[in-house]
Amino acid sequence: MDSFTALAEPTRRSILEMLGQRALAAGDIVSRLQDMGSISAPAVSQHLKVLREAGLVRVRVEGQRRIYSLDPAGLDAMDAWIARVRGFWASRLDLLEQALLEDDRDE
């Protein structure tokens, strides 16, 4: 699953926002999400798996705990795609603006 598809789901976006503040143990993520509404630990585990497979988060094991954090490489790939799209549209919008200004002058 690609990054954007993974982030189409609101719970996964919430997890990413949490991890944007600091790395968290899986249990802490479950607790925070349960405070926001009812979600099971297995459901959170599945969401974390999707985010990990999409390259947006990484996990390290500390004893019995799994600690999740953002994966900068995954976010960099998204940033690069957004920059390409933004660059394409910025130049197109500049051309549109010029054309509209020329039309205004012709009137």
Q: Can you walk through the features of this model?
A:
There is one protein chain. By secondary structure, the protein is of the alpha+beta class. It has two domains: 1-70, Winged helix-like DNA-binding domain superfamily/Winged helix DNA-binding domain (Arc Repressor Mutant, subunit A), CATH 1.10.10; 72-107. It has helices at 3-6, 10-21, 26-36, 41-53, 72-106, and strands spanning 24-25, 57-62, 65-70. It has a three-stranded antiparallel beta sheet with strand order 1-3-2. The protein is elongated and about 70 Å long. The termini are far apart. The model has no long low-confidence stretch (mean pLDDT 90).
Produce a short descriptive summary:
InterPro entries: ArsR-like_HTH (IPR011991), HTH_ArsR_DNA-bd_dom (IPR001845), HTH_MetalResp_TranReg (IPR051081), WH-like_DNA-bd_sf (IPR036388), WH_DNA-bd_sf (IPR036390). It holds the Pfam family HTH_20. This protein is α+β, with helices and mostly antiparallel strands.
Order of helices and strands: HHEHHEEH
Q: Please state the CA-atom Rg, rounded to the nearest Å.
A: 20 Å
Q: Count the beta strands.
A: 3
Helix content: over 70%
Summed up, the domain count is 2
CATH superfamily of the largest domain: Winged helix-like DNA-binding domain superfamily/Winged helix DNA-binding domain
Q: Which range does the strand content fall in?
A: 5-15%
Q: Could you list the spans in which at least 5 consecutive residues all have pLDDT below 50?
A: none
Strand order of the largest sheet: 1-3-2
Note the total helix count.
5
Distance between the termini: 51 Å
| Class computed from helices, strands and strand pairing | alpha+beta
**Mean residue pLDDT:** 90
